[in-house]
Amino acid sequence: MADATAPFRIKGETGDWEVVVGLEVHAQITATASKLFSGAATAFGAEPNTQVSLVDAAMPGMLPVPNRECIRQAVRTGMALEAKINRWSRFDRKNYFYADLPQGYQISQLFHPLVGEGEVEILLDEKDDASAKSIGIERIHVEQDAGKLMHDQHPTMSYVDLNRAGVALMEIVSRPDMRSPAEAGAYLRKLRAILRYVGSCDGNMEEGSMRADVNVSVRKPGDEFGTRTETKNVNSVRFVMQVIEYEARRQVELIEEGGTVAQETRLFDPDRGTTRTLRSKEDAHDYRYFPDPDLLPLELDDAFIEECRSSLPELPDAKRKRYEALGVTPYNAGVLTAEVETARWFDALLDANAQPAQAANWVVAELFGALNRLGKGIEESPVSPQQAGGLLGLVADGTISGTIAKQVLEIMLETGEGAAEIVEKRGLKQTSDTGAIDSEIDKILAANADKVAEYQSGKQQLFGFFVGQTMKATQGKANPQVVNERLRAKLG
Hints:
Blueprint: E1 10-12, E2 15-28, H1 68-80, E3 88-89, E4 92-95, E5 105-108, E6 118-123, E7 132-144, E8 148-150, E9 159-161, E10 168-174, H2 181-198, E11 210-219, E12 229-234, H3 237-256, E13 264-269, E14 274-280, E15 290-291, E16 298-299, H4 302-310, H5 316-325, H6 330-337, H7 340-351, H8 356-374, H9 385-396, H10 402-415, H11 419-426, H12 434-447, H13 449-456, H14 463-473, H15 480-491
Parallel strand pairs: 12-13
Antiparallel strand pairs: 1-2, 2-10, 2-11, 3-16, 4-5, 4-15, 6-7, 7-10, 8-9, 11-12, 13-14
Helix pairs in contact: 1-4, 2-3, 5-6, 7-9, 9-10, 12-14, 12-15, 14-15
């Protein structure tokens, strides 16, 4: 198995090459059901052009009005990324003509973004806190999305759907701090988790509410940065990693053959796992940016900043550290905090008085396994956190054994009944009756006199055989601790 923390290198004809990666993540602000500068709806999957206001369609005389909730969610996101919040920011016009952009320009933020520098800490190995790495955030700016052209609806014409026009996006721009596909994947997963904890974006990459532009260049380790390409609108973590792998190898081969990397925008083909040229890269001056004359600068006051900060939930890193302090292993803590739904479910389980380390092991090993078999996520679990707490409580107080608990969980998943009810109704209580246990042990020892002799002559590993036979004879209901004690006494 490859070491996740080892440097990632491309093997070329002239030696090793290093990849340099930066990501520009476009995250739709899904916390509000309206657009950045209009009250039009933003629901996914609506009929084309049914969610378009006069502002979105750029009708003459229509003026944009900033959506306060969009600004609030972008500020909260910046705070979660430990970024600088700029109390004064401004909207700019980015001018370009395209059929799905009715205004002929996009309202964005180039010179004075809402959020400045921050960072995201990733773990390259979930079991090793020493594998942590900090990825810098350069800025977060707020901008409106464009519409969508559809080329497959008519033999000679393209149709335009403006439902997405004006949707609020946060563009989260990283520094070029990533050095492998694995680091970029870890960063994107962590960023998505933070957005979902904050509630500003649902992180649904399949529906396009989160997508990444992938900047890739190569260099000999320690050299200056090379020329980068930008692959647009990549919509899964796996595809982002494929883009980096393919682009890095393509650029190394190109340079070693005597060519030069062109600074350009590329598109990813997920079917072939390759990228292709879309257009040569424009510079900022090509867009003729200037302050939007229809919008006043944004000025954030102390009360607004404080409300944003106080509304933040416990974030993944803080939650993970809290779980570890409760005795949960670093690996389990990482699994339990990776998705906000899992963390909320586990918190509810702890509120039901479950013992943290035992509960974490049970969720990761038993519950996840059962839900996988059912094809369900934890938010669809037929067993509630309170019911799970009841089951674990029965194990903790010795009412049932761990083996019986597995049977009870299966019945709970099928019937929705509580653990105590199932145990009572089906007579599954663990027995610590030494008389009954002694009786079964005596029968097993009598039937296996040869193994008893082997054990007593030094073959200690046979002890497990006697335990297993006793548990089988008592249908798993015997208290394992009592079984161990009575067997040791009888075997001498």
